[in-house]
Amino acid sequence: MEKIAVIGGGSWATALVKILSENKSEIHWWMRQQDDVKHLLQYRHNPRYLSGVSFDLNYVKPFNDLAAVVKASDWVILAVPGAFVQNAIASLPKTAFEGKVMVSAIKGMIPDENCLITDYLEKHYNVPASHQCVIAGPCHAEEVALEKQSYLTIGSHDLDHANRFCELLRNRYVKANPLDDLDGIEYCAVMKNIIAMACGIAHGLGFGDNFQAVMVSNAMDEIERFLTAVMPQHRNLVGSAYLGDLLVTAYSQFSRNRTFGNMIGRGYSVKSAQFEMNMIAEGYYAVKSIFELNKTYKVDMPITTAVYNILYERISPAVEMEILKEKFK
Ligand SMILES: NC(=O)C1=CN([C@@H]2O[C@H](COP(=O)(O)OP(=O)(O)OC[C@H]3O[C@@H](n4cnc5c(N)ncnc54)[C@H](OP(=O)(O)O)[C@@H]3O)[C@@H](O)[C@H]2O)C=CC1
Ligand SMILES: O=C(CO)COP(=O)(O)O
C-alpha cells in the first residue's frame, strides 16, 4: 500500500484524498484545524469543503501533526494555496522531505520570492527536480466529488515517478497522463488563473461571450510568449494541461478565479470579494508575482498588466478593459 501525505484541508486536497483513498492508498491527511480533524474522525467527512464526500477511515488518517504525517509517507502532496505554503511547512526541518517524492497540487506561486512551488522546494528544502511532480489539467474539485469524467496530467522530469503517480490516480472517472514539461505546466496553471480573473472582470462589466472568446485566444498568445521567454522548450499548448485548464477556469461556474474577477467587474473591492468568496482565488497573488517576474523578461503581457493594474493599482476595470478592447485582434 502506498503511503501518501496530503497537506491541506481545502477542496482540492479533499478531492485528491477521495481519489487516492478509493484506490486504497494509505492517506496521512494534515489539516491545520484540530476541530476539522475531530469532525472527520467522528463523521467521516470534511466539514467545510466537499462535505458530501465520505471517507473510509481504514485508508484515510487525519492528523494535526505535520511532522508525523510527512515522516509516515513516501509521497507528499502539497495542496494549500501558494500564498500559505511557506507558513504551512515552516515548522518542518529543512531535511523533512529527504527521500520523498514531492507532488505539488498547487496552481499558484510563492509571493515575495515570485517563484514556483517546485523551485521553492528545491531552493529551501533541497528537493531535487527529479523527485518532484506537479498535478495539472482541467479539473475542478467539485466535479471530482460528483464523479464526473476528469483528466489530470502529472508533470515531472522523472517519467517513472509521473507514471507511478498516474497509476495511483486512475479510476472509473479519472484519467491521468504523464508529461515531462514540469515547469511549463506549472507556469501555465498559474497564468490561466490570471486570465480567468480577466474573463470574470469582463463578464462583470457586461462584456459577452464574443469578447471572452477573443480574450482567451489572445491569452494563449500571451502565455506562449511568456513560456518561451522563461522556459523555452517545444510544447503542445493546445494540450489539456495548458489550453484545457485555461478553458475550464475561464468558463466554469465552479472557478474561484472567474467568480472573484466577476465580483471585481461588478464593483466589489478586493477585500469584500475575498470575504464573500470564502475560498482562495490564486490569481490574485499570482498576478503580482508574474508581473514582478516579468520586469526581468519584459514580455508583452497586456492581460496580466490589466489585471495587475485593476487589483493592485486601483485602476478602474472599465478603463483597463477599454485598453484591452483596442489591443485585441
Ligand atoms: N479547487 C479546485 O478545484 C482546484 C484547486 N487547485 C489548487 O489547489 C490549491 C488549494 O486550493 P483549494 O483546495 O481549492 O482551496 P480552497 O479555496 O478550497 O480552500 C482554501 C484553503 O486555504 C486554507 N487557508 C485559507 N486561509 C489560510 C491562511 N491564512 N493560512 C493557511 N491556510 C489558509 C484553508 O484552510 P482552512 O480551511 O483551515 O481555513 C483551505 O485549506 C490552490 O493552489 C488551487 O489553485 C488545483 C486544481 C483544482
Ligand atoms: O485549477 C482549477 C481547475 O482546473 C481550479 O480553478 P479555480 O481555482 O479558479 O476554481
TrEMBL record:
Residues 3-160 form the Glycerol-3-phosphate dehydrogenase NAD-dependent N-terminal domain. NADPH binds at residues 11-12, 32, 49, 107, 141, 256, 280, 282. One of its GO terms (molecular function) is glycerol-3-phosphate dehydrogenase [NAD(P)+] activity. InterPro entries: 6-PGluconate_DH-like_C_sf (IPR008927), 6PGD_dom2 (IPR013328), G3P_DH_NAD-dep (IPR006168), G3P_DH_NAD-dep_C (IPR006109), G3P_DH_NAD-dep_N (IPR011128), NAD(P)-bd_dom_sf (IPR036291). Pathway: Membrane lipid metabolism; glycerophospholipid metabolism. The keyword Nucleotide-binding applies. Its EC number is 1.1.1.94. It catalyses: sn-glycerol 3-phosphate + NADP(+) = dihydroxyacetone phosphate + NADPH + H(+); sn-glycerol 3-phosphate + NAD(+) = dihydroxyacetone phosphate + NADH + H(+). It comes from the Bacteria. Sn-glycerol 3-phosphate binds at residues 107, 137, 192, 245, 255-257. It is found in: Cytoplasm. Belongs to the NAD-dependent glycerol-3-phosphate dehydrogenase family. NCBIfam families: PRK00094.1-2, PRK00094.1-4. This is Glycerol-3-phosphate dehydrogenase [NAD(P)+]. It comes from Adhaeribacter terrigena. The lineage of its organism: Bacteria, Pseudomonadati, Bacteroidota, Cytophagia, Cytophagales.
